[in-house]
Each structure stands twice: as C-alpha cells, then as structure tokens.
C-alpha cells in the first residue's frame, strides 16, 4: 500500500517537473517588481520585508511560477529564502494532490502558495522573512529568481532580477515598480483631409539662363525628387492631386534685379518641365514665383557653420545694412574677402534652390485600409484614424505604442499627437522621451496628468503632486489613481531613508 502511494506521488511530482509554458522568460522582468524593499540587520538576523508585484504575468492553467529570493556572494556562498509559488488552476490541483499523497500541509522551503485567479495574473504578495546574518552577507547581493515552469532546470530556464547589489546598501526606490495611469486624448474627425508633399530641388543652370538641362551636373537626381513625391501620391489610387507650386530662390552674387529675374524665370521653367514630363493633369491648379536673394536662409547657414570666419561681423552687417546700401560689398571687404570666398563656394549653392509643394486630398480610410497605409504612407492618415488603429491592439503593447509614436513623428506640432505619444512613451517607461513631448504643454490641462507621472519618475514629488492635483480638478480620472501612487511613493521613499540608518 505504501509502495503504491509512493509511485502515485512520484508520477505527480514528475508531472509537476514538466514545463508547459510557451511564455518568453525574458518578459518576466517586465511584469514582476519588488516594492518596499527593506533589507536590514537586526539581532543577528537579516530581515526581508517586500511587496512582490505581479502585473499581468501569464500563469495559464498548466503553469507554475516560482519566485525564490537568493542571497549570493561573489565567492559562491549563498542562501535561498522560502519561495513564493503561483499555480495555474490545473497545476494547483496537481500540487495540492501531491501534498495530500505526501502527507504534507506545505512543501518545505515554500513561503506561500497562491492560486492564479486568471491567466494574466495581477497580484501583490507581501513577503516577510529572516535568515541568520553572517559576515559574508555584507557584500553579497540579493536576487529574485523567477522560474515560470517551476521545473528547477538549467540557468537558461531562469530569470534573475537584481534587488540589491550589496546587502549593506539597500536598493534605491525604483519608479518602474509602479504602474501609473496615463491619459489618451481622442482626436477629432478631420472633415477634409488636405495633404501636401514638400521638398527642395537644387538645380544647376547655365550662367544667366533658366533652361532645364537634365544631364547637367546632378540635375537628374534633383528632378527625381519631384518625381518621387508625385509617385508617392499617385501610388494611392484614392488620392487626388489638387495643385502644385514652385518657389525659386537665388544667391546674393550679382545684381538684385538680375537675381530676382533669374529666380522668377527658373521657377516658371521648372513648373513647365514638371507639367510636361511628369504627367500632371492639364487642368491642375499651378503656381510659380521667384523670390530673389535668400538672405534669411544665408543667416541660418552662417549661424550653423563654425567654419565661417568673422561670423558675428558678417551677421551684424546682414542685420543692419540694407541690400541697396552696399551690404554685399561690405561683406566682401572683410578679411581680404576670405570669408566671402568660403560662403561663395560652400553656402551660396545651398541658396539656389526651388521649393516645391504638391497638394492633394485623400478620403477617410477604414481601419483595415489604415493598417495598410500606416507603415508606408502614414501622412495620409488622420490622427483620429491612427487612434482607431491603435485601439485594435492591446493597450500598452508594442504595436499599440508604435502607432502613437508614428503619430507624434508625423504631426510634430499637434498637441494631441504629442500628448498621446507621451502616454505611449510612459507605458514603455521611457520618461525622458515623454518629457520632450510634453515640455511645451506645461500650461495645458490635457498634459498635466502625464507631466505628473514624469515628475514622479524624477522623484520631484512636490511638482508631481501639483500637476496631478490640477489634473484631478479638471476631471482627468487617471490623476486620482496616480495621486494614490504618489502617496505610496512618498511613504516608500521615507521608509528607505529611515532604513538607511541601519547601514
């Protein structure tokens, strides 16, 4: 009879050693955190007081998650603390049956066993334990070993999370242990989706002429830029081109009147070439204009180029001397003409350009069509369409966040795009990027909740509270939850400061 019971127990324990999990071990650390990290020596004991948080860990019915705190020194000495076990439904039934067959109320070396309520487990485990303190522990490290299958296999089947790099130095509070709530803004529907492809073409012309010669220097590649922009639009059958405009500019050498004439004629010549050679509709609304010498662009180029000698003197002349009062001549006379010669060769060619803009309209797109365009032609989508696409994915997933990152890149000046991109960055715990998206909206109530989270991540807790209180007063419901986190964070910081007195 005893032999029969032993065999049954052995079979069940063997079943428990099988890994049923297809879950990626590398993802465990993203879902398991330790809060209230208290490690201190008292009366020859090392005391551990933790909250182990499981945030969406996949513990399916057949799986077992084992969490084992380990103290380990570099010389190999180590101590394992009692483990926490989280069983899936079927696994828990097998586990309890094995205990009954073994005549045990609890498996040795186990702190507590939890039954996962659902597949994606959210659980806070209060953990208190102590071990006899030994001198080697002072410079040892504390780890939490996370094993999803519970099979006790090789190191490759485990994930180790460092909790304290030295027992004598408790880990600082880690804001990534917390899960604040971000707020997303639903963008309004765009009634008429007007778009434009813009670019610059740096064409070379024969002196004092404006004929387009494709084979002259790099002209073929510059003309291809316009062709590429047109094809980008034409590749989408629903897009309708409504207009094209070309604005041409000249560099300062020569007379102002001649440069104005050249820019006008070259803009018109390029527009005629595009209409003739790139197959535009005959009734298309078109526009060309020349703007002469581009001194504004020259100032920008000089400011960015450290190789321009006498830079401040040149900029002062441009800002104070009129074009018709000898501006160019005064610049030419600086330092025997050396700075002017440098600009003539390096900067002036960048002024002789033609800016083009191709205007078009696109219809409203379904989510299915939007998914096709998101990676290839995201500019054709509205923010509202991107928002709908994002919400086809699980909130906080890589695909969900990516949509908002694309929206922030395509619409860099749009408030809603920036605030939503910040929300996505926070979900990825990329707080510096979130701050960049939000910094120009400090006075906007829609940004206050997310700004509060960013300041919490920086442990600027008073600033965080100010923004979260204001956000809550504006009816942003997520702010209330985040204020609770802030209160808990303040308490944890205080406990950490008090705990430091023990070391």
What would you say this structure looks like, in words?
With 503 residues, the protein is of the alpha+beta class. Helix content is 41%, strand content 22%. It has 17 helices and 13 strands. The strands form 3 sheets. Strands 3, 4, 5, 6, 8 and 9 form a 6-stranded mixed beta sheet that branches. It has a 4-stranded mixed beta sheet with strand order 10-13-11-12. It has a 3-stranded antiparallel beta sheet with strand order 1-2-7. Helix 13 (415-427) packs antiparallel against helix 14 (431-438). The two termini are 56 Å apart. The model is unreliable at 1-26 and 152-156 (pLDDT under 50).
So how many helices? 17
Count of DSSP E strands?
A: 13
Question: What overall geometry do the principal axes of the alpha carbons give?
Answer: elongated
Can you give the mean pLDDT?
Answer: 87
What fraction strand?
15-25%
Question: C-alpha Rg, in Å?
Answer: 34 Å
Amino- and carboxy-terminal Cα gap: 56 Å
Uncertain residue segments: 1-26, 152-156
List keywords for this structure.
503 residues; six-stranded mixed beta sheet; single chain; four-stranded mixed beta sheet; alpha+beta
Concise overview:
By secondary structure, the protein is α+β, with helices and mostly antiparallel strands. It has helices at 2-16, 28-31, 89-102, 219-234, 256-277, 295-304, 311-320, 327-332, 338-346, 367-374, 383-390, 398-410, 415-427, 431-438, 445-457, 461-473, 478-499, and strands at 32-42, 45-58, 64-72, 78-80, 83-87, 110-115, 120-132, 141-147, 159-164, 193-201, 240-250, 285-293, 354-362. The two termini are 56 Å apart.
